[in-house]
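Q: Given only this backbone (307 positions), what sequence would you predict?
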């Protein structure tokens, strides 16, 4: 009887062991299945089709790209932008906003004028431009910048401290032909665009722009305006011979030009003229406006002469 019970107990133990193994096996199978499911999901997300997964998935067709008919290049997509991109598409409204800008500074390229990376500062009637290279007068005087006054149409060349070793000692300016050196400001370019038609919204450098199809001096063109302030950043014109004129305003800053950036050197002289002058108004026989922050030389009184 004792032996029989031992055998029965052994049978019971075998059944218990078998049940435990079955449970363990099922748990293992579930774990392996979960790992395989997770692996397949990862493969699907990472697109590892080179290993044979997803071989039956057909490739998505490439989206159609809209080309600019003037430049022949695709429009640049807008990246994500914090805030809201303006929905202003009315040319007149952008033109009105640009008209309120008081000063500009930028680097200009105009392929028809042979200008490349030439710096400009505009503040009302006063203008300064700086060339990327130096030039020399027949007198031997070197210059790399020109000061212009738009009301009286006068222009003077000067060698800046970027080029000349001692520009603060040699302050003699050379009078030159105004028309030879004057270039339109951004608004003068913009006013030559007519028959605007909104096309799209696009990036130009780091700026968000509204693109318009326009007629520029009688020629078909595309015009890129800064999306909020309305000033031009790029103009591409198709010439009669199918060549392209490209006008670009790079590194544009508006209402940021300081008077000291565009004023003539303090205590300057002009070749062939007698006298020393301290600023534009002094030379023109004017008195600075109240609040202009122009330093009046000691002992100076309101001038009564004119040039």
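A: Predicted residues:
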């Amino acid at each position: 009887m004792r032996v029989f019970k031992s055998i029965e107990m052994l049978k019971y133990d075998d059944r218990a062991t078998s049940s435990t193994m079955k449970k363990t096996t099922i748990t293992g199978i579930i774990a392996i299945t979960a790992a395989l499911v997770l692996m397949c999901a990862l493969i699907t997300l990472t697109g590892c089709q080179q290993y044979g997964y997803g071989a039956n998935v057909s490739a998505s067709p490439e989206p159609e790209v809209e080309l600019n008919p003037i430049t022949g290049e695709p429009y640049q997509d807008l990246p994500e932008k914090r805030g809201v991109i303006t929905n202003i598409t009315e040319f007149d409204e952008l033109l009105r906003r640009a008209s309120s800008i008081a000063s500009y500074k930028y680097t200009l390229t105009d392929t028809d004028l042979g200008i490349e990376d030439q710096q400009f500062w505009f503040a009302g009637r006063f203008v300064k431009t700086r060339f990327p290279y130096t030039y020399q007068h027949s007198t031997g005087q070197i210059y790399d910048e020109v000061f212009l006054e738009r009301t009286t149409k006068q222009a003077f060349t000067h060698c800046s401290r970027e080029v000349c070793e001692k520009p603060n000692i040699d302050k003699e300016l050379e009078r030159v032909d105004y028309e030879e050196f004057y270039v339109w400001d951004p608004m003068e370019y913009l006013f030559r665009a007519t028959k605007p038609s909104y096309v799209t919204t696009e990036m130009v450098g780091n700026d968000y722009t509204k693109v318009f199809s326009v007629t520029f001096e009688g020629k078909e063109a595309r015009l890129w305006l800064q999306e909020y302030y309305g000033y031009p950043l790029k103009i591409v014109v198709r010439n009669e011979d199918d060549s392209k004129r490209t006008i670009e305003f790079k590194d544009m800053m508006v209402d940021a030009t300081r008077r000291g950036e565009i004023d003539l050197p303090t205590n300057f002289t002009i070749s062939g003229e007698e006298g020393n002058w301290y600023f534009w108004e002094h030379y023109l026989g004017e008195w600075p406006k109240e609040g202009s922050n122009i330093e009046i030389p000691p002992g100076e009184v309101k001038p009564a002469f004119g040039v």
